Prior knowledge:
Layout: E1 22-27, E2 32-37, E3 44-53, E4 56-68, E5 71-80, E6 93-101, E7 104-110, E8 128-135, E9 138-144, E10 150-159
Antiparallel strand pairs: 1-2, 1-10, 2-3, 3-4, 4-5, 5-6, 6-7, 7-8, 8-9, 9-10
Amino acid sequence: MNPYPSTPVAPDAIEELAWIAGAWIEEKKVRRCEEIWSAPEAGAMMGMFRWISDDEVSFYEFMVIKTVDDAVELHAKHFHQTMVAWEDKARTQAFVLTEVGAGRAVFAAKPSSDAPDEPDAPDEPGGWLVYELESDEALVVRMIQPNGEPKLTFHYTRQDTR
């Protein structure tokens, strides 16, 4: 049995994600990753991500958490360092909020409904994104594969952006 939920939670849950807002940095020997989120406003949060390896940007990501119909969704679009998108113009990676609580949010991958019906379109990622606030200064983000196994984990520290 998989430990991650897949049933969407109520749309007003976006306000419960305010703890994600801020600038988060992970410094490792092989990479520096930054994830920055705005506070919820007008039913949406926006985020950006940058992965740096060997003093060079590997890629960027633009993200939005928003209310869509009867759910809260996270949509992400990836860009090469040249700002050319990975996904087709009409595609994003989409996740639906399936759990939210004090310092924990789980997003389950959902198939893209606006993707062009092309045989060479990239596969949907499947799996989950899990955000967990370990303290006011520490955020862990886990990418979980469809089989429930971890794929990638980020250990962020809150940064002062002044």
